[in-house]
Amino acid sequence: MQGNKLNIFLWLLIFIGLQSANQWSEFPIGNTYTEWIASTIILLLGNYISKKQNIQYGKKNYLPVVLFLCWAVIGAIRGAYVAENYWEYKNLVYGVFASSLPFFVYIFASPLVVGKFYRLWIRVCLPLFFVFFFWVITPGEVNFYLAPIFVLGCFMPMMPKGWRFVIVALLIFMLVVDFSARSQVLKAAFAFAMSGACLLHRFIRTSWLRIAHWTIYAATVILLVLGATGRFNIFTDVTPNEKIVSHKTQAGEIREENVYSDTRTFIYFEVFASAIRNDYLIFGRTLARGNDSAFFGAFLGDDLKTGKYERHSNELLHLNILTWLGLVGVFLYSLIYIRGSWLAVYRSKNFYVKLMGIFVAFHWAYGWVEDFNRLDIQNIALWSVIAMSYSSKFRVMTDAEFRAWFRGLFISR
Question: Could you tell me what percentage of the chain is helix, strand and coil, using 3-state DSSP and rounding each to the nearest 5?
């Protein structure tokens, strides 16, 4: 029975993966309600799988996860109390799923479960991309479907040669197909950089990884402070004024975009201004509400006739947490990343999990730029890495044992 439930759970993750690029696809898979049903069953089965793995939810290392999930439950209860219309209750459902992502730290604690997930994704989703999704997803957004590539691509030197060719080709495609898709380009480049470190791991000292780990966190905090005080804005002050690129959309239209355009500063302004103006900066506006938005609020306020000019979620992960759960939520959410990356870098016996700690730290930093939080394949892949950083079963592996486990992902069983 446990095997059957695990298989259902894994196939539902694959279904979520097929749906993840719906927004950029000519042929969406399923709809909102099928996504909700699948997500609900995933969380229920995930709880069952976690218990069968004898994961202790209250274990010391997992304390940041417990604290955040408890705070999210409070945010959901508050949201159910303050919601006033259909759209706010719908937002509440999305908020619950998005804030449940840290629960995957328990689900993916087992190398068996993580291995089966990636093996199934490689066997099902990769072939489907070439025979169907390649033709229907906007080229600059294929990362929303191929997100696990960014994890697998960190360890290309350990792959079988045939699979290495496929992964390299896909990463190069994401690098060059659309330079205006900056997140796709950056994440593909980061995967190549991680693979370079993997290839040269014999020459890389643990102390260097520890320095890199803390540098990522410290540099991000410094940049946030400089941006908040108006002294330095990384979104505008380190890039050229303009670089126009042209590309064809899925609808066949030619679109011109400035690769270096600043699309984030105004979101920061809206989110923080809304939080301060409405006095929810510390505790959040609940999972049912969004930030006041002059740019995007008209759809909710005018078109849907709610009278509330709000945007429930933005592209920036941490700003969504801020809106829903306040600075308390941002602090607790950040602790999950920091604790996981610290365990990986400082408490792992193998180089590869240490490298995952850098991956986790990078994504915490990138959460201030994008990494939109929702229950989709991008976040499932990300949280599988965070879970592996927490998992003692991964951290006690030797380099040889991890290599054997990773290579097994590409073997049909």
Answer: 70, 5, 25
Q: Under a CB-based contact definition with an 8 Å cutoff, are residues 176 and 192 in contact?
A: no
Are 96 and 76 contacting, i.e. CB atoms less than 8 angstroms apart? yes
Integer Cα distance of 230 and 129 in angstroms? 44
pTM above 0.85, yes or no: yes
Amino acid (one-letter) located at 378:
Q
The better pLDDT of the pair 98, 182 is held by 98
Report pLDDT digits (tens) over 356-398.
999 999 999 999 998 889 999 999 999 999 999 999 999 999 9
The strand pairing partners of 257, in sequence order, are: 245
Contacts of 382 (CB under 8 A, 6+ apart): 147, 151, 363, 371
Cβ atoms of residues 374 and 96 within 8 Å: no
Tokens of 90: 């719908």
The Cα–Cα gap between 268 and 281 comes to: 13
Query: For residue 98, what is the enclosing H or E element?
Result: helix 86-99
| Structure tokens belonging to residue 190 | 């980061």
pLDDT band at 308 (very low <50, low <70, confident <90, very high): confident
Q: Which residues have a Cβ under 8 Å from the Cβ of 196 and sit 6 or more positions away?
A: none
Show the tokens assigned to 156.
């290309």
Gap between the Cα atoms of 157 and 167, Å rounded: 11
Separation of alpha carbons 200 and 2, rounded Å: 40
Compute the mean pLDDT over every residue in the chain, rounded to the nearest whole number. 88
Most confident range, picked from 238-242, 274-278, 303-307 = 274-278
Torsions phi, psi for 257 (to 5 deg): -140, 150
**Residues, the chain, total?**
413
Angle between helices 2-19 and 32-52 (to 10 degrees): 140
